[in-house]
Design goal:
Number of strands: 2
Structural class: mainly alpha
Shape: elongated
Helix content: 40-55%
Radius of gyration: 19 Å
Amino acid sequence: MGRPACAMIPADLGGPTGVTSLGCIGNRVYTGLGDDELYFTIPGPKIGDVVERPETVVDANRALETYHEGRRAAI
């Protein structure tokens, strides 16, 4: 969804996935949203997944970091 940002909530409520919006010019003027920023919604039932998954990714990255540091030292 390009814009308007105000349509994000109804769109999010109507589907199983998040919604991205660039925001309309009115929204950008009143909120100060930068040219390099946008909005993304997360459906309420999915918020648990969003909270849990970063922890899994961080744990995996730490394990990979240890592996690659050991490999680099061996090279």
